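Weekly structure sync, notes
Attendees: PL (lead), two postdocs, one rotation student
Agenda item 3: pending single-chain targets
PL asked that the sequence for the first pending target be pasted directly into the notes so everyone works from the same version. It is reproduced below exactly as submitted, 77 residues in total.
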Amino acid sequence: MKIVFLGRLAEQFGASHTIEPTESWTVAEAISACAGDQADMLTAPGISYVLDHEIVRIGTPLADAKELAFLPPVSGG
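Predicted structure, written out during the meeting:
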């Protein structure tokens, strides 16, 4: 599965990674696998989880999804 980090998260984690989740994984397990001890950055308020182009919750199963993206809040001027 492709993991994509957008905005300021890409600066911290890089643009993308690949993980091999099991069928029972949720977004939460993917966060642990790709962020390790920095998982708090991906569970901070305002972070959106986008599974195959659909916004989901942290407990959503990954099932057979192809991509999980992390979208930080956007601030504008």
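Discussion points:
- The first helix runs from residue 8 to 13.
- Residues 35 and 57 are 17 Å apart (CA to CA).
Action: rotation student to compare against the earlier draft before next sync.
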